[in-house]
Design goal:
D-Maltodextrin-Binding Protein, domain 2; Dipeptide-binding Protein, domain 3; alpha+beta; 21% strand; 3 domains; globular; Dipeptide-binding Protein, domain 1; 29% helix; 22 strands
């Protein structure tokens, strides 16, 4: 949508987005935080918006030179970077500061030293080999904040009405605009002057806003709106095509949706309760779950999504099997789902970080799966902030969550199970298994992809057997764009993508 002020002809890109909690890179925890942060601040490296397979490209820094043993990374500041090496060092040091722990501290756990030998050079020495380290330099945690708090990104934060609206205005000093100006003019297009994020919890309201042209895109298609978007052949409805609306994506995302199982919980956690977790995993009915989501999702058989090289292409030993679920429940000490300590049905609480009708319906469906095995599931719907706080404190039993990949490598998903990353780090289940840690550490020490993938396969087998998560599904990245939005591409890493968006020059 273009909102045209009579004199300024300001172009505005609007979309609904979940709540952003912080603009501090070191404190960011969600993909929504990262989207906003990448508009205002730049990272040392970034992921190419167009290339597939995904590749890293320079941003504030050129691509690093790596020592033969893989322990020293030397980065030269890009020639037009408006900050210096000391600014990059300061950003990384914030992540490493034990006095001010960051949710992104895990990304710098292998860093031994970081220094600026001269104003345009950053030298990072690792204590151990970490083949994915360059990808971490493209994450929002590493975004560089100038000493005065400002950023060097394509937009600046103009206003923020928390839990309602964020508005970003184009940063005219951003060097990237000049690089595309001539091509944009020749093509008759222009960047958006403002980016507007709106918090709209109700999916029906989002849909109506899109149809009315009040937002330029829908980042996903709500389950209840599926039949209004797609025809019987799985194609975009003709009426929407006639209105200039475009359908994007449809490929499995680099993400995993799951029910986390708190390993600190006395009922569910630890080795002694493994059979109960296996039973709950066998109770999960993927085919019914898939129908609930209009057949627009794919099976998740483990911690690494199929779209990532290194995925273990073997069926899980704990796919839906009602008879096996009941047998494992009995072996776990809950015959027929009855808790022998109370003589009553075993009751487990599921925490969900979005108090919406859709979340409640999803929770009720999950409850029906467990009820078939004899287990009662209570729902606990919370705001996102309260939910994260509960998960970080371990004040949960089951929790519904998603891990959106930060980069396309098995390590990014398997690090979620390493004991060193226990909550409030990314291992929110507080899973600990020395055998897993040993395989993970061996993978990280391996010099070749082939060796790493052998260890990654064992990591996946261990996690599948221990069941610290119930893997629900992998989403397919469907989205809709309106006629005024150009140069939109589906990507698993959309952080800062709006700088690539264009609209007709009028």
């Amino acid at each position: 949508m273009i909102l045209a002020a009579a004199l300024l002809a300001t172009t505005v890109f609007s979309r609904a987005l979940e709540r952003v909690d912080t603009m501090d890179p070191a404190k960011s925890q969600s993909a929504y935080d990262s989207r906003a942060i990448h508009l205002v601040y730049e990272t040392p490296l970034e992921i190419d918006y167009m290339k597939r397979p995904y590749e890293l490209v320079p941003s504030l820094c050129e691509l690093p030179q790596v020592s033969p043993e893989g322990l020293e990374y030397t980065l030269k500041m890009a020639g037009d970077a408006p900050v210096g090496a000391k600014d990059v060092v300061r950003a990384i040091d914030r992540l490493r500061d034990p006095e001010n722990p960051s949710p992104g501290g895990w990304t710098m756990a292998a860093v031994k030293t970081v220094e600026a030998p001269d104003p345009r050079t950053v030298r990072i020495t690792l204590s151990r080999r970490q083949h994915v380290f360059p990808w971490m330099l493209a994450m929002s945690y590493c975004a560089v904040v100038k000493e005065d708090g400002s950023g060097t990104g394509p937009y600046r934060l103009e206003s923020w009405w928390r839990n309602h609206e964020m508005v970003f205005a184009r940063n005219e000093d951003w060097r990237g605009w000049s690089k595309t100006a001539a091509a944009d003019a020749a093509a008759g297009i222009r960047p958006f002057d403002k980016i507007r994020y709106l918090v709209v919890d109700d999916v029906s309201t989002r849909w109506l806003m899109f149809l009315r042209g009040e937002v330029d895109m829908l980042g996903d298609i709500a389950r209840d709106n599926w039949s209004a978007v797609m025809d019987a052949n799985g194609e975009l409805h003709p009426k929407l095509r006639e209105a200039g609306i475009r359908l994007h994506g449809g490929k499995p995302a680099i993400e995993i949706r799951y029910l986390g199982i708190n390993q600190r919980d006395p009922v569910l956690g630890g080795e002694k309760n493994r059979k109960l977790r296996q039973a709950l995993t066998c109770a999960f009915d993927f085919q019914t779950w898939k129908s609930f989501y209009n057949n627009s999702i794919d099976r998740a058989d483990g911690p690494v999504p199929p779209a990532v090289e290194g995925y273990l292409d073997e069926p899980s030993p704990y796919r839906h099997d009602p008879e096996k679920a009941r047998r494992l429940l009995e072996e776990a000490g809950y015959p027929g789902g009855i808790d022998p300590k109370t003589g009553r049905r075993l009751t487990i609480t599921l925490s969900i970080g979005r108090p919406s009708q859709d979340s409640r319906e999803a929770g009720e469906l999950l409850a029906s799966f467990f009820a078939r095995a004899g287990v009662k599931l209570d729902l606990r719907l919370q705001t996102w902030d309260a939910f994260l706080n509960s998960v970080n404190k371990g004040d949960v039993q089951l929790f519904l969550m998603c891990w959106v990949g930060d980069y396309p490598d098995p390590e990014n998903f398997l690090q979620l199970f390493h004991s060193a990353n226990a909550s409030p780090g990314p291992n929110h289940a507080d899973y600990k298994n020395p055998a897993f840690d040993a395989e993970y550490d061996a993978a990280m020490a391996s010099p070749t992809k082939e060796e790493r993938n052998r260890h990654w396969a064992e990591c996946q087998r261990i996690v599948r057997e221990d069941c610290p998560w119930i893997f629900t599904h992998v989403s397919r990245n469907f989205s809709l764009s309106g006629p005024e939005l150009l140069n939109f591409e589906t990507t698993d890493f959309p952080y800062g993508a709006e700088k690539h968006f264009r609209t007709p020059a009028k």
